[in-house]
Amino acid sequence: xxxxxxxxxxxxxxxxAVVVSTRGVEVELTKRELKQMFTRQTLTWSDEQPLTxxxxxxxxxxxxxxxxxxxxLPPEVYHRYLLEKAYRSGDxxxxxxxxxxxxxxxxxxxxxxxxxxxxxxxxxxxxx
Length: 128
Prior knowledge:
- By secondary structure, the protein is of the alpha/beta class.
- The protein has a single domain, classed as D-Maltodextrin-Binding Protein, domain 2 (3-Layer(aba) Sandwich).
- Helix content is 27%, strand content 28%.
- It contains 3 helices and 7 strands.
- It has helices spanning 31-38, 61-71, 75-89, and strands at 3-8, 16-22, 28-29, 51-56, 95-97, 107-113, 123-127.
- A 7-stranded mixed sheet has the order 3-7-1-2-6-4-5.
- The longest helix is centred in the middle third of the chain and has 15 residues, at 75-89.
- The radius of gyration is 14 Å and the shape is globular.
- The N and C termini lie far apart (28 Å).
């Protein structure tokens, strides 16, 4: 069974968090490492498991948070970047959904509201 790991950005606690579906192991990531995963420069998790990116809707508060605190790009620019990158490489672009979604059998990286998750069910990841 998969569970969500929460990436807790201490300066932005209580808002949104980057989450990844995996077994409850504690991991420390940098913003740069997260950005590489969200921009699909890194396509695997630390154990070389393929990583699927599921993004919040482009107009959502979660996407605005991700853009401001992790990516440093406006949502529209980021979206256009992902579409162009997918088009050039012949890949499918990431999935955009209203609520975080698990893809059966895949490791999923996404953004969620912190208050929707409890410490009892999820492991917190520190972001350096």
